[in-house]
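Internal ticket - ligand job 413, pyridoxal-5'-phosphate:
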Amino acid sequence: MNDSKSPRNRVAAHIRELPKSGIRDFFELVMSMDDIISLGVGEPDFVTPWGIREATIYSLEKGHTSYTSNLGLLSLRQQACEYVRKDFGVSYDAESECIVTVGVSEGLDLILRAILEVGDEVVYHEPCYVSYPACIKMAQAKPLPLVTTEEDGFSLDPAKLKSTLTDRTKVLLLNFPNNPTGANLSRDQKKEIAEIAVAHDLIVITDEIYAELTYGERSPSIAAFPGMKERTVFLHGFSKAFAMTGFRIGYACGPSDLIDAMMKIHQYSMLCASIMGQEAAKEALKNGRRDMESMKSAYLTRRNMIVKRLNNIGLPCVNPEGAFYVYPNISSTGLSSQEFATRLLKEERVAVVPGTAFSQEGEKHVRCAYAVSTSDLETALDRIKGFVERVRSENKTSPGFRKHKKDKVAIAN
Ligand SMILES: Cc1ncc(COP(=O)(O)O)c(C=O)c1O
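stdout (structure tokens):
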């Protein structure tokens, strides 16, 4: 039998080697259970604001059901570029430096496929959004993770970045405010990182999907720093801040040669983003700011509540400066992140995501998304408290745990 046709070889090697998402089995289990409070999914609990839904219905009524330009509606690109200029401090030409994508997900895939070749490296910080290492591998390049730590507030230390780079590193991929930690970068950190990117001639991809959900002072995008606009691809979208996950609209702004290269892939693989989603995005940019601010203020109230209560329970967490996630340290329970999440789900019907989904170093953490109602959050935290107390009392009577705990302390020292 011809070996190249054997079933084992039907799937391309780089896809065969791609691990399935670390949280897939876990969410299969969540979906099979009733009455769960889920702090698991990274999705706003708010329905898309009515004004945006209404504008979408109206555009359908008017019969807007066609393809659009491959790059997306020019009117949307113009609005998006104006928004980026005002809110992020960078000016782009709507006709040549902007493309509308199917969410940030497609924008990320397009830019990675457009610029990477076998052997190129992409440096990115871990813990990170689950898609990053997978998308880098799908583009046949090598992921170069840079571990961010609790001690550094999960922010990116420019000195560590510098020492991680090699001759093959072509791209730096950033996501701040960060999924899963909520960490952010200060203006000074961005400046230092920008200087490194210029000195090492890196292309920078900045995923700013959580930018509006910044609770402290908001600094300009890294694309706005000297020497950066020409080397940065700015990815943004409507899923999180405007509660529009189902509309699947994002956009990328960057140098025209890179947008052009992204466009080549997009026109053959996707053709264009859906016109209904694009009409909705136009309305979000035109009139959505007030709703966005009120959702942000609800997230902030919940953030303050969850951080305070987790710390009181003895699951310390770095105070998230943005997004809607918190990443508590669960090591005092003696459970692995998978054990913690599975037992919490089965015993208390609360879903959180094991930290190992976001980083090889994630064993000491779980991710809790606080995009749920305040009352559900209160109940979930009561259940987490009860669970942690029970685990701790079990540990007191279990000599096995004491040994485990002692080993851990020894390692930590
Ligand atoms: C950091 C980050 N980037 C991108 C995405 C995907 O966004 P979109 O819905 O725009 O594809 C997510 C979704 O959770 C995310 O957390």
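Auto-summary: The chain has two domains: 3-47+291-412, 50-287. The pocket of pyridoxal-5'-phosphate is lined by residues 42, 103-105, 129, 175, 179, 207, 209, 237, 239, 245, 250 (CB under 6 Å).
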